[in-house]
Amino acid sequence: MPSVAVKLYSVFFKFLFKQRLQNRIQSPTQLPDPFGVTSRPDESVANSNPSFSDGVATKDIHIDPFTSLSIRIFLPDSALTFPEPDSKPHSKPNPTLLRVVVDSETASSLRRNSYGSSIAAESRDQEEASRRNSVGEGLGSYKGYAPGLDNRRKKLPVMVQFHGGGWVSGSNDSLANDFFCRRIAKLCDVIVVAVGYRLAPENRYPAAFEDGMKVLSWLAKQANLAECSKSMGVKKLDSHNRHIVDTFGASMVEPWLAAHGNLSRCVLLGVSCGANIADYVARKVVEAGKHLDPVKVVAQVLMYPFFVGSVPTRSEIKLSNSYFYDKAMCMLAWKLFLPEEEFNLDHPAANPLVPGRGPPLKLMPPTMTIVAEHDWMRDRAIAYSEELRKVNVDAPVLEYKDAVHEFATLDILLKTPQAQVCAEDIAIWVKKYISLRGHEFSY
């Protein structure tokens, strides 16, 4: 059974969450808000931190001028390791030495470490100008990480993460989500892109799903712009043209992704309702084919997905009053998310096993499913995984005993031993698909 602390926190959480849902249902009918919201005022958030204070730097970006869609990038300090020419073991540099500083002697030393002592003075000046453009003029006040342009840095896979919260709450910069994403970035050795999608009821279905695809399209655009900027820079026509290239890259290409991200090894990770978004995005990526190149989704992780259906499963009957999210509360959340005229528990967004929900399951990427013993959503997630295995998709299910819904993503509050084990299990499985040679420790 869950610990006493988990039970007490569950009671408190359910009381607050039910109150929030009822307040939004009872409030006057809201007109659709195209811009929308991605977090609630009562949500505790973690500020972005562009320095590697605990081994992971974070950065917030608003990527859509027409909506509130935003992302938070989690960059582990392993991205700063340079490959050794003699194939000796990597040694991690001190991240503080790679921060932007005003002192010219320190900056000169940093350039020598990155490019070697034989680089010409003009090239050093150009690189310093590019670094200034990427972070702004206030270098002394910024004191954050600014990536250089050296291609010897190893490229890390990218994991796109969708938070939970029952469609109406949660955020990509909440304390709990920030803590979880930092843990995943370290263990999986990936760049995590946490998506701040629009919440209901201000934006009902399909807004959150569309935001998921917008992020994938934005990542594809980033990769293409970075490649374009790189190919233009190789020409080295004259100082004027190089300045245009530098300005183009600094203003349109996200330097953290351009310098360190390998989008040909992309993983989707969804939590609760975020797992519904991840699965939708995976299906749309399959349908898009090469239109999202060079982005390639190689796997997805569905953590206690928020699947429902009109015919109740055994766990939905037996555990309907389970910890944190009971079934009655979740029905309110679905009513706030789905348009009134479309409300149906067999809606394609709710039930992954309804007929005609394309594309064919055999085309789906490898899918790991995480379920908790004391979660009423457990059985339907397992059933979906079984259907994937029937068509030869690698779709393991990991069930954690004495665990509750969101046990791994609320670990900053719950402090359960299963949370760390779950994150390690995810890392072991994911590395099979993000490695370069099919071995989890090869990249």
TrEMBL record:
Residues 159-408 form the Alpha/beta hydrolase fold-3 domain. It holds the Pfam family Abhydrolase_3. One of its GO terms (molecular function) is hydrolase activity. It comes from Lupinus luteus (European yellow lupine). Belongs to the 'GDXG' lipolytic enzyme family. Residues 122-131 have a biased composition (Basic and acidic residues). This is Alpha/beta hydrolase fold-3 domain-containing protein. InterPro entries: AB_hydrolase_3, AB_hydrolase_fold, Carboxylest/Gibb_receptor. Residues 27-52, 113-137 are annotated as: Disordered.
